[in-house]
Amino acid sequence: MDPEQSDNYEIGFRTKQYGINYDLSLFQIDRKDFIMKTSGNYGDTATTDMWDNIGGARHRGLELAVNGGITQSLSFNLAYTYLDATYTDYANFGMTMGSGWGASVVTADVTGNDIPRTPKHQLNVITDYQATDHLKLTAEVNAKSKYYADDLNALEIGGHATLNLGVDYMMKIGGYDLNMFAKVTNVLDKQHYNSARSSGDRNEDGVFDHEDLSITVNPGRIFTCGLSMKF
To answer: Using CA atoms, how far apart are residues 14 and 65, in angstroms rounded to an integer?
Structure first.
């Protein structure tokens, strides 16, 4: 068995114009000789069950960061990622369906499929408004496009976007730095999954569908507040 290999390629560009910083990078990561089970990552096949070099993957995309001050009081930070992550060699994926005497093994060549839980687009935008010397208001948007929860690319999870709002009040008391803050996360109470994955027929009903997902559901709108002191 050979060690896993990876070749990384990256080129970037950075500039500053009118007080705004721009940072762009293009990248590609080629992974070879994945070490995985010869019986498939999540199930049994007719092959001997052992660990060996059986797979490969490619991650290709770009990252863009833009930040700076729009006015003396208003600033922003934008980060965007485009990612195309696919299997370049995974010909022996296996999944056990059903249970007991009625169980069967489904095998598939998933070469060319998207790697699970890798959305093609992710965006984060933060704006800060310094209303006074002591008061700062913050708005943040997080967005993520759809992705697949499984290697077969059978279970698609929809994209989502959330809005967060925050306020900070900073002052000095007796030489101490005091910060009072409050934040509302997921202001619009959007329902979505923090994570979703599937590794097989979890409920053993012989059908691979969304009932087999392992999920972490976002709790929805959250209010937090606090007080910190630096001395």
So the answer is: 9
